[in-house]
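Form 12-C: Joint structure prediction
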Amino acid sequence: MVAKIDESELFEEVPGIFWSVMGMVLLGILFSSASMGFLYNHRQKSIYKELYVKEKNLWQQMEKFKVTMDSLGEGVIITDLHAKIWYLNNRAEELTGWRYREAQGRSLHDIYSVRNEDTGLEENNILDKVIKQGIVKELANHTLLVKKDGGTIPIVDTGAPVFDPERELIGIVITFRDETEKRNRQKLLEENELQFRNLFEFSADAVFIADAETGIILNANQAAEHLLDKPREKIIGLHQLSLHPDEKADYNKDIFQKAVENLQKRDVTEVVENEVVRADGALVPVEILASRVVYKGKKCLMGTFRNISERKKYESELHKLSTAIEQSPSSILITNVDGEIDYVNPAFTVTTGYTKESVLGKNPRILNSGLQSKNYYQNLWETITSGKNWRGEMCNRKKSGELYWELASISPVKNQEGVITHFIAVKKDITERKLAEERLRENEKYLGSLIKSVPDTIIVLNKNGEILDINASSLNYFPGTIQNLKKRLESLLSQEINKLQVGNSAESLKHKQVAKFQFELSSEDEEIQYHFSARAVLFGEDKVIITLSDITESIQNYNRINVLLRVEEEQSKRLQNFTHIVSHNLRSHTANMEGLFEILAMEEPEILENQYIKLMKESSDKLQTTIYHLNHILDINTIHREDWEKINLYKAVDNSIKSISNLIKNGGLTIYNRVPKGTRVLVIPAYLESIVLNLMTNAIKFRSDSRDSYLKITVQKKEGFTVVSFEDNGLGIDLHRHKVKLFGLYKTFHGHSDSRGLGLFMTKAQVEAMGGKIDVESEVDKGTTFKVYLRDE
Amino acid sequence: MNKIECVCLIEDDPIVVLLMRKFLEKTGKAGQFVSYQNGKEAYDNLKDKFEKGDPLPELIFLDINMPVWDGWNFLSEFIKLPLQENIIIYILTSSTSPEDLSLTKKYGLQDRYILKPMSFEKLNKILNSI
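Section 2 - Result
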């Protein structure tokens, strides 16, 4: 194309030189022929030869001219001043459709008829124009040449005057060329441009043209105005970065730069998603595609921005919906109209054990447990194919073979034409509920038989005290009709219920706790008085369940025991008084005797030397000791709470050892205190001390002389007690003979001079007073172990 | 040390009375010694003395178990008298019954509770402490 343009340009410059040469040539031709006639006349004889030479030259020149003319790409027509055709070249013959021979001598107007393309008027004044103006270029714009056959072709023509050697105007030469192709090209270009402009301007997508080098926006279309909600004047001149949010400027700068680079190799970039800032500051999501254009001579990027807000909205809605389906705890199954599975959600896999891949394309029949009849499925299928929803419970089989229950809702999906395309089944696993129902039924049965079997009377009343239900065991107590019993119970229990509702017990009933009360009911013949203990429980909103236990016998026993207890207490009190009186009186008398002996010793000491008096004094002393002990025993019965104390057992034992260290040393006994140092016990300290001392002195008294004696004191925990063991290797006790009497009052087992038999009795009494007990293990001549059980708390 | 003018013993047991008299004599710290056989007799006599303005004993040993009025009957009436003098009362008894012990506490006499028999040594200590 470029080459062609160059050619035409060349031709535009050629005519000046060419025509001057041509003019000169023509003038030469004319001049020669004129002079030839003249020479012929004057020098006939000698000239023939010269003539021949000259003619030959002329012919040669003519040939040269013709070849030159015919080789031109343009039509050339030469006329005289009267517009008579004098010459046509080959191209002119082709373009006009006239042969040179036909045209010769005819009027230019006949051969070269041109019209204005726009106006359609003839433009046949070229001769006048050249004569008046000299050389005329582009005689008329949009000129059409009318051919001999009437057809037209667009041309561009030039006219120039022809002079003789005397500078006399003798004719004109017209050159013209075919413009068809150029015109067509022009037209196409114009059409393309219009098309492009329309495409640009009326594109549904926003289009921006930005300078590739500076990034400045040079143009934008209507859709761009709409997208940004800004008039074009305000868009043009902006930097492309300002279309996007500021905070992403670096990123966008990069994207733009990359697009510029990429577009050196490719026509368009890949689609990228981005956001643009609207005039009101709102962000609009867009999809951008950039291409390379030249605009106003500058390399530019043309960005097509598609608003994808709607799409995004749909996408997000679709995403929400699909997420809901994907994450639904219900199994969701979609089939096509042929019943082939198109989709299942993860819950389906969880429930059935079948993976999505393994069921796609299959029929949901794979879940069939065989527990539903054919009719059942037929009804289902008929319902959904008729366009209705189906809902029902069914038992299906998992992949593992396990059965499960589900509540299914199956709906047909119709397209816009109302034709069913798919079926959607939403299914909820109700196996738990089914099992619970089963259990409930069993429980009801179980409760029913339980109620029948209990000896207690169970009565269900409403809040007005009317009996709704009563179990049959009641009849055992009351001969007579159940109606009679009901009436009597109703009047009785409604009073009780009223009491419960108004009293504090109403609160307890509301809180579903048990309210207890007792009442009496006499037999119909009024001979027997029955006692009942009742427990009332609120059941549901308006029912009260009362269980009645016949406690007639218990009440009678209780009354009997109460009488016995009173008698016992009375006796015990009397006994105590008795012991106090006895001990008081005895003490008075022995005290008197002691006093008398004292006075006697002061006033008449020699009398005390008397053997009988001595014995009397001895008896009196012993009596004194006995009474002292008796009083001790009495004291144990009067424990006061404040005497209890939590003490360190190790220290207590240690202190006791120290307090009788001389005794221990003289007795030759080794005592091992193996009580863990942190052991703490709740005791009456005085008693504990007495117990420990007593058992230690026992071990000293009853040591064996035949070996090194020891006493080990150890502790172990047992059944909520701290058990303190006192293990010696002394004389031992024959338990077969003495066990029963061991802890009795005034019993001795050793015939030992020092044993008085009170110690173990006291120890046992003290241990028991502290809520513990004492045990003994012994073997004669091996040793004895006393185990003292002390309460932990 | 001042001699105590008058010591009184309210006691139904003549042996106790005898012993007290003897011990008092031995100590030589008391001037006069009077004894009454029961609470009623003691109250009547002491009240009579009080009303006449006669001197009352500075120290009284009181038995609990006595006929007619026991020691507690005496005490409850005796303390109602608007006495000016400070009379020291000791309970002298062979009773250890809880009732008696608690009554002793009630009258604030738990530190002046002597369990029989009264010995010379005990008496000496008491007289010295006054």
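Section 3 - Comments
Chain A has six domains: 2-179, 203-312, 333-435, 454-550, 556-633, 641-791. The interface with chain B takes residues 577, 580, 583-585, 587-588, 590-592, 594-596, 598-599, 602-603, 631, 634-635, 638 of chain A (CB under 8 Å).
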